[in-house]
């Protein structure tokens, strides 16, 4: 059995370095300097994005995973910085967009795929409630299965198919996109305190919450999550959580 533990290092927002065995996945690269991107439109404030700079950490990785192509998960700076031949896993609906941008090793995950000794499963997500979720387009989560199993839920709220993912895979660690991202109308489109608490009740896994304090429409803060939930890891940018 491998002696390597699963680890997640938060870079910023939903950008993470996920390491299993000896393989490191760069997830949802957002590389723009602080304030270079416009505010998310139709949201409660007009602060420019990202709200914070990149942390001073080494970005070393073997493969890229993009849960969906919203600009706070894959941006122009990342497109320019990534090597064209880096293995890049994504949801099937977005393959052509990556190919059109010049990436030469794009690997859509219909159901599951493999990389080294790791099996990658694509899982469903719901990016909001009702009609708004439909308008937000497809999003995915991913489960990385090796000696230990890690579930990245992606941009989703808590709903029955997320619960079923826990039942199916029984992960050792789960990473949730918090922030309770909000437009001026409608319900939040990512997890808030109630969603996070539901996950905590549903699993014995280590629960990590990211996707906060970096984009203008993400209104839920780290301190609120820490004070209103129990047994939840809320890393700062650059911080690593290890099993």
Automatic annotation (TrEMBL):
It comes from Natronorubrum aibiense. GO terms for molecular function: hydrolase activity. This is MBL fold metallo-hydrolase. It comes from the Archaea. Residues 11-211 form the Metallo-beta-lactamase domain. Keywords: Hydrolase.
């Amino acid at each position: 059995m491998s002696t390597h533990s699963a680890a997640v290092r938060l870079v910023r927002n939903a950008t993470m370095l996920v390491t299993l065995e000896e393989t490191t996945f760069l997830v949802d690269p957002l590389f723009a300097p602080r304030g270079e991107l416009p505010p998310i439109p139709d949201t409660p404030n007009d602060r420019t994005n990202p709200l914070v700079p990149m942390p001073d950490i080494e970005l070393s990785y073997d493969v890229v995973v993009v849960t969906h192509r919203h600009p706070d998960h894959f941006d122009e700076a990342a497109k320019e910085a990534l090597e064209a031949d880096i293995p890049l896993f994504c949801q099937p609906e977005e393959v052509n967009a990556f190919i059109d941008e010049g990436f030469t090793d794009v690997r859509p995950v219909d159901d599951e795929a493999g990389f080294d000794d790791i099996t990658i499963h694509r899982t469903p997500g719901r990016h909001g409630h009702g009609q708004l979720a439909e308008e937000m387009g497809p999003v995915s989560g991913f489960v990385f299965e090796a000696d230990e199993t890690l579930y990245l839920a992606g941009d989703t709220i808590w709903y029955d198919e997320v619960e079923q993912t826990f039942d199916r895979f029984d992960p050792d660690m789960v990473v949730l996109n918090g922030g309770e991202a909000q437009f001026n109308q409608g319900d939040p489109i990512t997890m808030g305190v109630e969603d996070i608490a539901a996950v905590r009740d549903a699993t014995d896994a280590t629960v990590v919450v990211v996707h906060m304090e970096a984009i203008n429409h993400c209104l839920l803060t780290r301190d609120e999550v820490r004070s209103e939930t129990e047994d939840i890891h809320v890393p700062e940018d650059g911080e690593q959580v290890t099993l």
